[in-house]
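Input/output pair, single chain:
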Amino acid sequence: MITRIKELPDNMVGFLATDEVSGKDFIDVVMPEVEKFIEEKDKLNYMLVMKQIYPNLQQELGFKTQCWA
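Output:
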Protein backbone atom coordinates (compact mmCIF):
# COMPACT_ATOMS: atom_id res chain seq x y z
CA MET A 1 0.00 0.00 0.00
CA ILE A 2 1.23 3.51 -0.81
CA THR A 3 -0.14 6.57 0.95
CA ARG A 4 0.65 10.26 0.61
CA ILE A 5 2.61 11.88 3.43
CA LYS A 6 0.70 15.05 4.28
CA GLU A 7 3.12 16.48 6.89
CA LEU A 8 5.65 17.92 4.41
CA PRO A 9 6.57 21.44 3.29
CA ASP A 10 4.42 22.92 0.50
CA ASN A 11 7.27 22.52 -1.99
CA MET A 12 7.44 18.74 -1.56
CA VAL A 13 5.29 15.70 -2.31
CA GLY A 14 6.00 12.45 -0.49
CA PHE A 15 4.69 8.93 -0.13
CA LEU A 16 4.99 6.04 2.30
CA ALA A 17 5.12 2.45 1.03
CA THR A 18 4.10 -0.20 3.58
CA ASP A 19 3.13 -3.86 3.53
CA GLU A 20 2.48 -5.17 0.01
CA VAL A 21 3.25 -2.74 -2.81
CA SER A 22 2.71 -3.27 -6.52
CA GLY A 23 3.38 -1.30 -9.67
CA LYS A 24 -0.37 -0.69 -9.83
CA ASP A 25 -0.23 1.02 -6.42
CA PHE A 26 2.51 3.29 -7.71
CA ILE A 27 0.64 4.11 -10.93
CA ASP A 28 -2.74 4.60 -9.20
CA VAL A 29 -1.57 6.57 -6.14
CA VAL A 30 1.80 8.20 -6.84
CA MET A 31 1.57 9.19 -10.50
CA PRO A 32 -1.68 11.22 -10.30
CA GLU A 33 -0.39 13.14 -7.26
CA VAL A 34 2.98 13.77 -8.89
CA GLU A 35 1.34 14.98 -12.11
CA LYS A 36 -0.92 17.31 -10.11
CA PHE A 37 2.04 18.59 -8.09
CA ILE A 38 4.11 19.35 -11.22
CA GLU A 39 1.10 21.10 -12.78
CA GLU A 40 0.79 23.34 -9.71
CA LYS A 41 4.48 23.90 -8.86
CA ASP A 42 6.16 23.51 -12.27
CA LYS A 43 8.86 21.30 -10.68
CA LEU A 44 9.12 18.15 -8.64
CA ASN A 45 10.56 17.72 -5.15
CA TYR A 46 9.71 14.10 -4.41
CA MET A 47 10.23 11.56 -1.64
CA LEU A 48 9.22 7.89 -1.39
CA VAL A 49 9.78 6.20 1.98
CA MET A 50 9.84 2.40 1.75
CA LYS A 51 9.38 0.42 4.97
CA GLN A 52 10.99 -2.61 3.32
CA ILE A 53 12.63 -3.71 0.07
CA TYR A 54 10.19 -4.41 -2.77
CA PRO A 55 12.16 -6.58 -5.22
CA ASN A 56 9.40 -6.85 -7.87
CA LEU A 57 8.54 -3.14 -7.95
CA GLN A 58 11.41 -2.20 -10.26
CA GLN A 59 10.39 -4.83 -12.81
CA GLU A 60 6.69 -3.92 -12.66
CA LEU A 61 7.35 -0.21 -13.14
CA GLY A 62 9.93 -0.56 -15.88
CA PHE A 63 12.37 1.91 -14.31
CA LYS A 64 15.07 1.72 -11.68
CA THR A 65 14.36 2.51 -8.04
CA GLN A 66 17.15 3.52 -5.69
CA CYS A 67 17.23 3.57 -1.91
CA TRP A 68 19.56 4.35 0.93
CA ALA A 69 19.54 2.30 4.11
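The first strand starts at residue 2 and ends at 5. The radius of gyration is 12 Å.
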